[in-house]
Design goal:
single chain; about 425 residues; alpha+beta; UDP-n-acetylglucosamine1-carboxyvinyl-transferase, Chain; four-stranded mixed beta sheet; 13 helices; globular; binds ligand EPZ
């Protein structure tokens, strides 16, 4: 049982450097299957999800070696097309192996990916895209058996009732690379991680146009080669540190994130009076001062308010003056953390896909239980501003998406430690 102890009440001040993007590098690791040449990826964060993805690749017969702390060399001389079941339940990003294996071997046997507490995680749009490209996909008990031996280019519409799908877009791009001709993907996700992923594939020799827009054109039938690539910074980690600075009334500077990637979140923060800016070289400056006010937000696909920062924003809003409504437009049940914050005295009312947060509220330390990656970050933030001690149980969830979070927070003044 991993437990983190936090003693709140300290202003955080200083500089912090974020790591590479989890949600960009995980699909890149999978996409290294698309060539039998060697790929090197830099700025790979040391996360448990990265460890899991590397373990899966090795199970598939791929050679994966770390070079230093944040670089990985992958060489898929050959690759099995059967993904072991134990992994698919552990990590959603393993779903990207479907497209990678179809793109590499033309076939795949992949367990049904697991759900998680933030809500159901369907892959109907992924399957729709694969089938549109001519990939026979049938479900056999808890597996998908896929035959992509006769792929053809196609025009595909990927968005669903909740908008675009990040991993779905990534998956269909990889399968389209195998389909001779030019495929068009409409309703593609435009998250920065998708654009960075396309940058990686382009470095491997892929021909993808429309990157950054919701209409991508992929030229299939081109053999890809090895490459060397550096992952973008993690905007969710950066946004979490911005909230840490604000919730403790501190002054924090954040390095390692490209300019513009956090804009949708910064727009939301400025609406509550937060003094946050990002300069041309990407440095984010958080200057606390004055009482934060409230603002109603709705999360949505990029460039909407990022759902992965919804819990952190809610924790921050417990310290703002007024009542905010937070509507979760991507994962309606992504409020597991609210009851835990209630144990600290937070006034949060969850109704269906929205939460109403009243503040400011003097939080008091409590014993809390983490349920998932981003909720855990919200509990940490609340502990940093609460009076007294907070203990967060099942703190291992944090390690899925944050590298050495406690150490980085201690370096800017927090009294926090994994016990
Ligand atoms: C990616 O998940 C991220 N994960 C998530 O980050 C992130 O919250 C999410 O995108 C939205 O930005 C990775 O990239 C590994 P989706 P993904 O497919 O791709 C519906 C984190 O904390 N949908 O974009 O799995 C779905 O139900 C994680 O780092 C379908 O209906 O999310 C959801 O409402 C959490 N059918 C919406 O689309 C499908 O076939 C977005 O899902 C696929 C998705």
């Amino acid at each position: 049982m991993e437990i983190t102890r936090i003693v709140g009440g300290r202003r955080l001040c200083g500089d912090v450097v974020v790591g590479g993007s989890k949600n960009a590098c995980l699909p890149m690791l999978a996409a290294s299957l698309l060539t039998c040449e060697e790929c090197v990826i830099h700025n790979v964060p040391a996360l448990s999800d990265v460890v899991t993805m590397i373990a899966i690749l090795r199970e598939l017969g791929v050679s994966v070696n770390r070079i230093g702390e944040h670089s990985v060399k992958i060489h898929a001389r050959n690759a099995s097309f059967v993904v072991p079941e134990i992994y698919m339940q552990k990590m959603r990003a393993s779903v990207c192996l479907m497209g990678a294996l179809i793109g590499r071997t033309g076939k795949a046997i992949v367990p049904i990916p697991g759900g998680c507490v933030i809500g159901c995680r369907p892959i109907d749009l992924h399957i729709k895209g694969f089938r549109a490209l001519g990939c026979r996909t049938v479900r056999r008990r808890d597996f998908f058996v896929m035959d992509g031996s006769r792929l053809h280019a196609e025009k595909i519409t990927l968005s669903g009732e909740r908008g675009s799908t990040v991993t779905g877009t990534i998956n269909v791009i990889m399968a389209a690379i195998k389909a001779p001709g030019e495929s068009v993907i409409e309703g593609a996700a435009v998250e920065p991680e998708v654009s960075d992923f396309c940058g990686y594939l382009s470095a491997m020799g892929a021909k993808i146009s429309g990157v950054g827009t919701s209409t991508l054109k992929v030229t299939g039938g081109i053999a890809l080669h090895g490459c060397e690539y550096t992952v973008i910074g993690d905007r969710i980690e950066a946004g979490t540190f911005v909230c840490a600075g604000l919730i403790t009334g501190g002054d924090v500077r954040i390095f390692g994130l490209e300019r513009g990637l956090l804009d949708p979140f910064l727009v939301g923060l400025r609406r509550i009076g937060a003094r946050v800016s990002q300069d041309d070289d990407g440095k984010i400056t958080v200057q606390s001062g004055g009482q934060l006010s409230y603002a109603d937000i709705v999360t949505g696909p990029h460039p909407g308010f990022p759902t992965d920062l919804q819990a952190q924003f809610c924790a921050l809003q417990t310290q703002s003056c007024g009542e905010s409504t937070i509507v979760e437009g991507v994962y309606p049940s992504r409020f597991m953390y609210a009851a835990e914050l209630g144990k600290m005295g937070a006034a949060i009312r969850v109704e269906n896909a929205s939460a109403r947060v009243s503040g400011p509220c003097a939080l008091r330390g409590a014993c809390l239980r983490a349920t998932d990656l981003r909720s855990s970050a919200a509990l940490y933030l609340a502990g940093l501003c609460a009076s007294g001690e907070t203990f967060v149980y099942d703190a291992h969830h944090i390690d899925r998406g944050y590298e050495n979070l406690e150490m980085k927070l201690r370096a800017i003044g927090a009294n926090i430690r994994r016990v």
